[in-house]
Each structure stands twice: as structure tokens, then as C-alpha cells.
Amino acid sequence: MLQHKMPFVHVVLLPVRRDVPEEYVEQVVAELCELKNTIEFVRSARCGKTVTSRGKQFTHALVVELESADQLPRYQEHPAHQAVLAKIKKIVAEDTIAMDFDSEH
């Protein structure tokens, strides 16, 4: 039986500033989601705005699945990631929170 390795997961919580135009935020979100088509080893990339108040100051979340943990440095250094990261830094109110974990367990 063929077994598929569970992905390595990169999660980021973003506290987007209220004064940033919604159209620009939507553009950045779309670029984040597009990373799955831009970076060959990204299994999936999902991003969206919270629909509840449970996220406190965090308004958006990004979830990226990679094949393995050793790809995280390559992902972080990839030009497509760096380009969207520069835009994220312009729209967040404060520090983001990032977590990375191996989803095998």
C-alpha cells in the first residue's frame, strides 16, 4: 500500500492595519495563495480573513504546506515569498506570529 508523507505546515497570523485599503489587502492575500503555483515544492497555500473575533488583533491567517521541514529555509528565501513578505510588512500593525510543525503526529 502506498503511503503519503504528511506535509510540513507553516502557519502565519497577520494583524493587518485598519487603515490599509481592503483592495490592497485582498491583492496581498491573493498573492499569498498564489505561492502554491509559484513555488514548486509548496503543496498548498491558503489565506483568508477571520470571520470571528476570536483572533483578537490578528485579522488574517496563512497556512502553507511543504513536502518536508528541510524545505522551509528554501521557502523563506524564495524570491516569490520575499516579494509578498515585503508587502506584508507594509500592511501589518505589529509583529506577526508564525508557527511551523510536522503534521505526521
Automatic annotation (TrEMBL):
**Alphabetized SUPFAM superfamilies for the sequence:** Dimeric alpha+beta barrel
Which Pfam family, an example, fits this chain? Answer: Dabb
Q: Which PANTHER family match?
A: PTHR33178, STRESS-RESPONSE A_B BARREL DOMAIN-CONTAINING PROTEIN
Q: Which residues form the Stress-response A/B barrel domain?
A: 8-101
Q: Which SMART domains match?
A: Dabb
The family database entries (InterPro entries) matched by this protein are listed as: Dabb, Dimeric_a/b-barrel, HS1/DABB1-like
The annotated subunit structure for this chain is: Homodimer.
Superkingdom of the source species: Eukaryota
Cross-referenced PROSITE patterns: S_R_A_B_BARREL
Q: What is this protein called?
A: Stress-response A/B barrel domain-containing protein
